[in-house]
Amino acid sequence: MRRRSTTSRITTATMALLCVAQLGHLVADGHTPYIAALLLTLLVLLVATTVKLHRDDCVESRMSAAVLALLSGGGVALTATIGLPGQSDNGLDLLGAATLVLSVTTLTTLALTARRQARETGPRSPYAL
């Protein structure tokens, strides 16, 4: 079994905390049904990606984690600035700020992990076994 790096463990931990933050968004406010369905879908994808990232730490799980972190942070940023459809802007609350920080932390640790792995493997053909 290969040994996982510290940045991979930190990425998994920040993804788990991002799941908790999304659960807080889903439970905290009274959303319209379509917003709740979007939040629930994002939460399910976050949980599945976190489990896959913890278990395998493969390229696919890291790419999915990056996309979901961007969606989580972007959703909070858009909600804070222009608001939800049909509503005015909500401003940035504590849960939204935590989600933004966790999203940026996840993206940063993913970038650090990619840089470390590129250094370890060196230049080689993408088709090499």
What's this model, at a glance?
With 129 residues, the chain is an all-alpha fold.
Question: Can you characterise this structure?
Answer:
The chain is mainly α and 129 residues long. It has one domain. Helices cover 75% and strands 0% of the residues. Helix 1 packs antiparallel against helix 4 (94-121). The longest helix has 28 residues, at 94-121. The radius of gyration is 16 Å and the shape is elongated. It starts with 5 loop residues before the first helix and ends in an 8-residue tail after the last helix. 26% of the residues are buried. The mean pLDDT is 84.
Name some characteristics of this structure.
single chain; 129 residues; mainly alpha; 0% strand
Largest sheet: none
Distance between the termini: 19 Å
Number of strands: 0
User: What's the overall geometry?
Assistant: elongated
The sequence of SSEs as H and E is HHHH
Please bin the fraction of helical residues. over 70%
Transmembrane segments: 34-51, 63-82, 94-114
Keywords: Membrane, Transmembrane, Transmembrane helix
